[in-house]
Write a structure and sequence with these properties.
Strand order of the largest sheet: 4-3-6-5
Distance between the termini: 26 Å
Helix content: 40-55%
Order of helices and strands: HHHHEHEHHHEEHHEHEHH
Radius of gyration: 19 Å
CATH superfamily: Aromatic amino acid hydroxylase
Largest sheet: 4 strands, mixed
Shape: globular
């Protein structure tokens, strides 16, 4: 019998489905413990005032449109009832890590892989893995904006282009080398935009990146601290800039708007086709064997719509 509780790294339900190789799962809402619910309440209560001060207006509009409950872990089926009519996106429950190409393929199909576990209430401030607070409270409100949602779809299309392109490289060593560099560049782009991006607005710089929007401490730090370098987005810088996940970001990039962000994703694809991501600077993130394999096997059928 599976014990109750869906705490990150302490959830027997997740261990069971992972042991069966299942990526896409149901959200077993009945397993959330009172401790899990209290963790959600604490996370939401303390960050809400900082959203009001630092978050992009479109994010706050998304929070309202999703009718996020500050008192209970969200049910993804309820989230999707509000989300799909706005942007045709939906949150899709997953058991944990999703290989890179499969993740981007989900985005292309207007699905966002969503973690269902929640961090331990004893460690509210930091979690290296995503959890439902990061994924739902950090990411999903932005998905209510159709232009931003289209950015994610465009990113998925870029990944599809990469998979088709590298499969045409006859030399295996060269194929792997170039793919490693390209995935590294895509991960850096995603990190400095979707996860840790700033945007210029009529009210000044605002946060739209989910890693910032789900971090009580860093959402303030990134806009208030003199230690943070904030530069206008430059693609050649972004794809060559390594990042580390275990501390506040010392360097972030500013886009001028959602249309600008969409244009940069399209430009990223053009650069990939021109070979400009074939020899990027080394460093983080390391590209795993599983991520490489996910691109190389992309023509095999993935059960994205399952």
């Amino acid at each position: 019998m599976t014990a109750p509780g869906l705490t990150t790294k302490q959830a027997p339900f997740i261990e069971e489905v992972q042991s069966r190789g299942e990526i896409y799962i149901r959200q077993p809402y009945e397993l959330y413990s009172e401790e899990n619910q209290e963790t959600w309440r604490q996370l939401y209560k303390r960050i809400r005032p900082r959203w009001e001060k630092y978050a992009h207006p479109k994010f706050m509009e998304g929070v309202r449109n999703l009718a996020l409950d500050p008192h209970a872990v969200p049910r993804l089926e309820n989230i999707n009832q509000f989300l799909q009519p706005l942007s045709n996106f939906r949150a899709k429950a997953v058991s944990g890590y999703v290989p890179a190409y499969v993740f981007f393929e989900c985005l292309k199909n207007r699905e966002f892989p969503t973690t269902i576990t929640i961090r331990d209430g004893k460690t509210l401030d930091y979690l290296p893995e995503p959890d439902i607070f990061h994924d739902v409270a950090g990411h999903v409100p932005m998905h209510t904006d159709r232009t931003f949602a289209d950015v994610l779809v465009r990113f998925g299309q870029v990944a599809e282009c990469v998979a088709e392109m590298v499969q045409g490289i006859p030399d295996e060593h060269e194929r792997m080398r170039r793919l490693d560099s390209i995935i590294k560049g895509m991960a850096r782009f995603f990190w400095f935009t979707v996860e840790f991006g700033l945007m210029r607005t009529n009210e000044g710089l605002k946060v739209y990146g989910s890693g910032l929007l789900s971090s009580y401490g860093e959402i303030e730090h990134v806009l208030e601290s003199p230690e943070v370098q904030r530069y206008p987005f430059q693609l050649e810088w972004v794809v060559n800039q390594y990042f580390e996940i275990h501390h506040y970001q010392p360097l972030v990039y500013i886009v001028e708007g959602f249309d600008h962000l969409y244009e940069e994703v399209a430009r990223l694809e053009a650069w990939i086709k021109d070979g400009k991501l074939d020899n990027l600077s080394p460093g983080e993130p390391n590209v795993s064997e599983e991520d490489l394999r996910s691109f190389l096997e992309a023509k095999k059928e993935h059960p994205v719509g399952a």
